Amino acid sequence: MGARKRLMAERLKEERKQIAFASLKDSPIAPRKMRMVADLIRGIEVNKALNILQHNPKEASKSLEKLLRSAISNWEQKNEDKSLEDEMLIVKTIEVSPAGMLKRIQAAPQGRAHRIRKRSNHVRIVVDGVKN
How confident is the model at residue 34, as a pLDDT? Predict the structure, then answer.
């Protein structure tokens, strides 16, 4: 590996030390419904985001709250020398992508059938520390 490439790799490694993420695979909620809740907390400070998710009546907010707590815990494990009080954590990115779809058939009148598509999603949340 060349010197320039090694220096760049070391710089990226240092930047990634601040970042922690958590991912949720195959959540049985439709991606569109999950994105509606995810848009509420994107770019917001972590404690405020947890407050928003706790008071949101949608079902997707429960799984996102659990995922956000996991990302915070991952950040704490990664940065043992730092505390949450000194750092201000922000939900840097939150990505909701579609996962597999369960295709079912529902009986319809006159011998017909309608297709039901039960959608699911994958969520990845990235938490980043910003110094006060």
Answer: 96
User: What CATH superfamily classification does 18-131 receive?
Assistant: Ribosomal protein L22/L17 (3.90.470.10)
Q: Residue 50: what residue type?
A: L
Two tokens, residue 62: 């429960």
Where do the domains of the chain lie?
Answer: 18-131
45 DSSP assignment: B
The pTM of this model reads 0.83
SS3 content of the chain, % helix, strand, coil (to 5): 40, 40, 20
Cα distance from N-terminal residue to C-terminal residue, the chain = 37
For residue range 35-70, list pLDDT tens digits in order.
999 999 999 999 999 999 999 999 999 999 999 999
Residue 50 tokens read as 């947890």
